[in-house]
TrEMBL record:
This is 3-oxoacyl-ACP reductase. It comes from the Bacteria. NCBIfam families: PRK07231.1. One of its GO terms (molecular function) is oxidoreductase activity, acting on the CH-OH group of donors, NAD or NADP as acceptor. Residues 2-182 form the Ketoreductase domain. PROSITE patterns: ADH_SHORT. Belongs to the short-chain dehydrogenases/reductases (SDR) family. One of its GO terms (biological process) is fatty acid elongation. InterPro entries: KR_dom, NAD(P)-bd_dom_sf, Sc_DH/Rdtase_CS, SDR_fam. The lineage of its organism: Bacteria, Pseudomonadati, Pseudomonadota, Alphaproteobacteria, Rhodobacterales. It comes from Actibacterium mucosum KCTC 23349.
Length: 245
């Protein structure tokens, strides 16, 4: 049975992805730094789900996550680097501590988890799926740290695809449009919500499940010749050229 790690899996897009992969017959390690939420969601997911409390920005904890996965499943076939934090702030208000807090999780976390997974992925080939954002594709106000971190994740994905292809490791990036998760709703005012509805060709936010379907596809053998790609799952927003609200 194939095994995947999904980071940031205690809620939102990560939890929906873990559930979809479990339904598709994967064993799934759900990694998150929120121990309480992780324990409560995993209580009902069955024996093919393993919760591992992990801060993706901490190298020791990331190494322990990989070791715990191999100890449990004996293999690793895919890693979904989904853990992330939001930040809406003007450049002049974004002091270095605030900037670092975003980079630590959104960029360093993806780098550390992917790097730690490579040796196990090399054993039989596998997939890396990094979750960036439409904010990494388009510059906008208030997203200096968040948008820059996500743009870096897009480039990191291409680097991974270029370097790891020879080992049968594919790396792809998903850029979600707006989804009504805790992360988004903490920073989306009613004005932003209305503007998104107008700007998105499908005139609505996406759902966690719509993201999970694409992420799971990219992890699967169905995507065996897909690597180095940046897939916007955004109701068509990116194709319009309209600015981010
Ligand atoms: P969410 O807040 O519902 O879930 C994020 C999860 O990541 C939480 O469970 C949180 O505890 C976990 N997490 C945060 N920092 C962590 C760390 N250091 N170590 C381990 N776990 C950590 O948010 P979501 O909307 O489901 O976001 C998932 C991903 O999708 C993020 O990378 C986010 O940037 C991206 N994204 C979301 C949207 C959106 O509108 N919701 C849009 C674009 C991109």
């Amino acid at each position: 049975m194939k095994c995947a790690i999904v980071t940031g899996a205690a809620r939102g897009i990560g939890l929906a992805t873990a559930k979809k992969m479990l339904a598709d017959g994967w064993r799934v390690v759900l990694a998150d730094w929120d121990a309480d939420e992780l324990t409560s969601v995993c209580a009902v997911l069955g024996d093919n789900a393993l919760p591992l409390v992990t801060d993706v920005s901490n190298p020791e904890q990331v190494n322990a996550m990989i070791a715990g996965t191999l100890n449990w499943a004996g293999r690793l076939d895919a890693i979904v680097n989904n853990a992330g934090v939001a930040d809406f702030g003007p450049i002049e208000d974004t002091d270095f501590a605030r900037w670092r807090a975003v980079m630590d999780v959104n960029l360093d976390g993806v780098f550390l988890c992917s790097q730690a997974a490579i040796a196990a992925l090399k054993a039989q080939g596998g997939a890396i799926v990094n979750i960036a954002s439409i904010s990494g594709l388009r510059a906008s106000t208030l997203r200096v740290a968040y948008g820059t971190s996500k743009a870096a994740v897009i480039q990191l994905t291409k680097q991974q695809a270029a370097e790891l292809g020879e080992y049968g490791i594919r790396a792809n990036c998903v850029c979600p449009g707006p989804v009504r998760t805790k992360l988004a709703m903490a920073v989306h005012s009613q004005e932003i919500i209305d503007a998104y509805h107008d700007a998105i060709p499908l005139n609505r936010y996406g759902t966690e499940e719509e993201l999970a379907n694409v992420i799971t596809f990219l992890c699967s053998d169905q995507a065996s010749y897909v690597t180095g790609q940046v897939v916007a799952v955004d109701g068509g927003f990116e194709s319009t050229g309209v600015g981010l609200p």
